[in-house]
Amino acid sequence: MQTVLSEAQAKHHHAEEAVQSLRRIVKALHDYSTSVEQQIGLTGPQLWALWELSRAGSLSLKALSAQMHLDPSTVTGVVDRLQRRNLLVRVPDPEDRRRVILSLTVAGAQLLKRAPHPAQGQLLHALHAMPLKEVERLDHALKQVATLMEVDSTDVRFFFAET
After folding, report:
1. Which of 128, 160, 161, 146 is nearest to 26 (CA)?
2. Which phi and psi angles does 147 have, rounded to 5°?
3. Residue 64 in contact with residue 52, Cβ under 8 Å?
4. How far is CA 12 from CA 16, 23, 29, 76, 95, in A?
């Protein structure tokens, strides 16, 4: 015999299931990010920055920030740490000396050859595998939740980013 739920009960049930799904996603991303950090010694944001530089060849800090969908001030710290580890270099832009261009070093490129994809890449891959209409609905629903929680204008960082 099938139980018929009231609209309020169904809403509560689906809200609980959505929260559980979000917990699973965040836990999976965190576990993966921790595993990658232990395996290759890079945080998620550091690995993501290297992947973006690898795909593009070289980028300005502003362009890298845009590729990562992060504020340049967040990416600056990531880039500083990667430069200290000799995984990327900053060179002045020959066309505009106020800008710097970021490029992988040989060591950075070699590390990427043995590195897994960053955790955020897993999430993006899953979203790209979904039909456009579902991604649009999810985007709208998550923005609505952020607005209702009054966090829609919160400055966001990369998942599990170092501060």
Report:
1. 160
2. -65, -45
3. yes
4. 6, 17, 26, 42, 58
Q: Are residues 24 and 18 in contact, defined by beta-carbon separation less than 8 angstroms?
A: no
Tokens of 149: 């929680």
CB 36 within 8 A of CB 115: yes
Q: Mean pLDDT over residues 62-69, rounded? A: 90
> 119-129 and 44-56 are packed helices; what angle lies between their axes, rounded to 10 degrees?
60
Residue 90 · residue 79 · CB < 8 Å? yes
As a whole number of angstroms, the distance between CA 33 and CA 45 comes to 9
What mean pLDDT comes out for the span 84-91?
96
Give me the sheet containing 88-93, strands edge to edge: 58-60, 96-104, 88-93
First to last CA, the chain: 53
Q: Give the ranges where the chain is alpha helix by DSSP (H).
A: 7-40, 44-56, 61-68, 72-84, 106-114, 119-129, 132-148
Q: What is the pLDDT of residue 53?
A: 95
Say whether pLDDT at 100 is over 60.
Answer: yes
- Closest of 86, 83, 88 to residue 104, by C-alpha: 88
